[in-house]
Design goal:
Distance between the termini of chain A: 46 Å
Largest sheet of chain B: 5 strands, parallel
Helix content of chain A: 25-40%
Number of helices of chain B: 15
CATH superfamily of the largest domain in chain B: Thiamin diphosphate (ThDP)-binding fold, Pyr/PP domains
Number of domains of chain B: 2
CATH class of the largest domain in chain A: Alpha Beta
Strand order of the largest sheet of chain A: 3-2-4-5-7-6-12
Strand content of chain A: 15-25%
Oligomer: heterodimer
Largest interface: A-B, 45 and 43 residues
CATH topology of the largest domain in chain A: Rossmann fold
Order of helices and strands of chain A: EHEHEHEHHEHEHEEEEHEEHEHEHH
Order of helices and strands of chain B: HHHEHHHHEHEEEHHEHEHHHH
């Protein structure tokens, strides 16, 4: 692919490639057909692949996931779009009790190659239920793989890897970065590996999805003050590439974890627990977390205060360096 | 003070919902009376030979025997739990025998009779109830899906499978070996679940090749069907836009004929049907349940007179050339089945503790391998310490 494209377009191209590569791949969800999705991620796919491959479902999330399970049993490879993060909950039971467990329940006889795409996170000035970060509910569920793309290149490659996976994948897309452009890499990186997106020696900053850009912006400013932040994009939350994070922390001695989701019982807690277990003697300071408050996601006029920002990340970096 | 009459008044007063019964004299399809007399129904003509009738009798007896043996095994501590199908054999055997080889069945956790008709060994069902596995069979071996415990969830899987059948071009071709339908089971309690209603929506919207088979056994654990619905359950279908029909769920012939017709319709592209099999759960919800806390014995006595097996035996004895030899042979086979279930159950091996890590994902992840190794080390250390 020549020239930079947006994340939304990159995922669209990845979906197109997946539809071309495997006739069993089908795309289903609310408004994904003629409209091309509310974020246009499936734009043009129904037109080019037909209504038997890309279709609009009735408006019921449990039905979307539950019918995907049946399609998978019949040998299909469904890609479900959940229109917004906060609307995944009506489908939660089918994801947690069926999609995640059927391979295990069948002693391996059945596979659930289902990809569930969820635009997640805030920062777009939306009304309630349109800005949530529900990734930990799924990362806590055995049997699911949970990933978040942060760049157009990962959007393009990771969606194809998710669809090819014989395990079910919850695929989080940072909706506020849909319009950010980037170059597509020539080949895919390993699906379940974290990536150091900016090397640095002073503090490791771990992020995923929409917070990777925030962490990189923070690192740029910190560098002006003489602090070199190493930014790690986790990419895969479950399984979690602990080794890459631990290796980084072994070098820097300091770890800050950034995510939009509320901090308590959040993904940062898991990262912190693993790092203290594996790199206890390398730590120069307690692991610190930057995230949403332990409150419902606020009204949009307050979201920029609520969400982790460059300033809040740098404030935390200052604290961890002073320790 | 006077007020205008309300809908509740029309139904017998503001508290009437506690005593209103759902259609106490249901108009339902019956082809064999409780006394064992054939009834003709022009909409569901059924040509059935004596041998075919005898074969259904055998199914019914063996299925009941599997069930009673499993209950006994639970009482002996060999099974952790069992969900008895007692009283529902007619509904299940009729529906099960209406399926063609290529059709797919999506059961709840009580469809032992359907499992039998699909050729699933009774022992295969026991792992789940003994606790040696979580199901563990391959649904594609016998076109019989895994038991699903979350109430109603399987109806959506059935709808999705039917969508796959349509995309495979296996509907309405006229080829009896190609055209395929899905039969999904659920109960009166499940009729309240969102998933079941969503499955109705999908089936209607896409005209899916599927049949919804609701065994209304009158009780969802302790809740009578009046807790779920003010209208007979089969009438729910009309609001979604497909036909619903009520059958005598204790009449194996009605179940066979009506399900066969509904599956034929589905395979030929005429869309879904809801069948409400009006039956009765003669036993407890499961072996952990005590129905004496919530229902009266007299109800059971009434339903005993409608037994699904007695009427077939009565028919065969009075109207066929089937002789005592046949009944003796079925009894002997039934005894052998009980011994197979009993011995096979006790022989089911306890799984290896480390097997919990199998089949979580298609391939063991690195982090699970690490956890598995830690657990193995711990298990070995405990073993060493105790020896």
């Amino acid at each position: 692919m020549s020239g930079p494209i947006t994340l939304a377009k990159a995922i669209n191209e990845g979906l197109r490639k997946a539809l071309e590569d495997d006739p069993k791949v089908v795309i289903m969800g609310e408004d994904v057909g003629r409209l091309g999705g509310v974020f246009r991620v499936t734009d043009g796919l129904q037109k080019d692949f037909g209504e038997q491959r890309v279709w609009d479902t009735p408006l019921a999330e449990s039905g979307i996931i539950g019918t995907a399970v049946g399609l998978a049993i019949r040998g299909y490879r469904p890609v479900c779009e959940i229109q917004f993060d906060g609307f995944v909950y009506p489908g939660f039971d089918q994801i947690v009790s069926q999609v995640a467990k059927i391979h295990n329940r069948s002693a391996g006889a059945l596979r659930m190659p289902i990809t569930i795409r969820i635009p997640f996170g805030g920062g777009i000035g939306a009304v309630e239920h349109h800005s949530e970060s529900p990734e930990v509910y799924f990362a806590h569920t055995a049997g699911l793989k949970v990933v978040a793309c942060a760049s157009p290149s990962d959007g393009y490659w990771m969606i194809q890897q998710a669809i090819r996976s014989d395990d079910p994948v919850i695929f989080f897309e940072p909706k506020r970065r849909y319009w950010t452009k980037g170059q597509i890499a020539d080949e895919a990186a390993p699906f379940d590996r974290a990536r150091i997106v900016r090397p640095g020696r002073d503090v490791t900053v771990v992020a995923y999805g929409p917070m990777v850009a925030t962490a990189l912006d923070s690192a740029k400013l910190a560098a002006e003050e003489g602090h070199e932040l190493e930014v790690v994009d986790l990419r895969s939350l479950s399984p979690l590439d602990t080794a890459t994070v631990v290796k980084s922390v072994t070098r820097t001695g300091r770890l800050v974890v950034v995510h939009e989701a509320s901090v308590s019982h959040g993904f940062g807690a898991e990262v912190a627990a693993r790092v203290q277990e594996k790199a206890f003697y390398s730590l120069e300071a307690p692991v610190l977390r930057v995230g949403g408050m332990d409150t419902p996601y606020p009204a949009s006029r307050l979201e920029e205060d609520w969400l982790p920002s460059v300033d809040r990340v740098l404030d935390t970096v200052d604290r961890i360096l002073e320790y | 003070m006077t007020t205008a009459p309300t809908a509740e008044d029309a139904l017998g007063g503001p508290h009437s919902h506690h005593i209103v019964h759902v259609d106490p004299e249901p108009d339902m399809v019956q082809l064999l009376t409780p006394e064992g007399e054939r009834v003709e129904n022009p909409d569901y003509p059924l040509e059935i030979s004596d041998d075919e009738m005898a074969s259904l009798y055998r199914d019914l007896v063996l299925v009941r025997r599997i069930d009673s043996e499993a209950v006994a095994l639970q009482r002996q501590g060999e099974l952790g739990l069992w969900a008895s199908l007692l009283g529902q054999e007619g509904a299940q055997v009729g529906a099960g025998r209406a399926l063609r080889a290529q059709d797919m069945a999506f059961p709840t956790y009580r469809e032992h009779g359907v499992a039998w008709c699909r050729g699933v060994d009774a022992l295969t069902l026991l792992g789940l109830f003994r606790g040696t596995n979580l199901g563990g069979w391959n649904p594609n071996d016998n076109n019989f899906n895994l038991y699903t415990i979350v109430i109603g969830a399987q109806t959506l899987h059935a709808a999705g499978y039917a969508m796959g059948i349509m995309r495979d071009g296996a509907v309405g071709t006229g080829d009896p070996d190609r055209d395929t339908a899905v039969l999904t089971f659920f109960g009166d309690g499940a009729s309240s679940q969102g998933d079941v209603n969503e499955a109705f929506v999908w089936a209607a919207a896409d005209n899916l090749p599927m049949v919804f088979f609701c065994q209304n056994n009158q009780w969802a654990i302790s809740a009578p069907v009046t807790t779920q619905s003010r209208v007979p359950l089969f009438r729910r279908a009309s609001g979604f836009g497909f036909p619903g029909i009520r059958i005598d769920g204790n009449d194996v012939l009605a179940s066979l004929a009506v399900t066969r017709k509904a599956l034929d319709d589905a395979r030929s592209g005429q869309g879904p049907t809801l069948i409400e099999a009006f039956t009765y759960r003669m036993s407890a919800h499961t072996t952990s349940d005590d129905p004496s806390r919530y229902r009266v014995a007299a109800e059971l006595e009434t339903w005993k007179l409608r037994d699904p097996i007695a009427r077939v035996r009565s028919y065969l004895s009075r109207h066929s050339s089937i002789g005592q030899d046949f009944f003796d042979a079925v009894d002997a086979e039934s005894q052998a089945m009980a011994e197979h279930v009993r011995a096979g159950c006790r022989a089911l091996p306890d799984p290896d503790p480390l097997s919990v890590f199998d089949n979580v994902h298609v391939e063991l992840t690195e982090e699970l391998r690490e956890q598995r190794n830690d657990f193995a080390r711990y298990l070995a250390s405990v073993e060493d310490g105790s020896s």
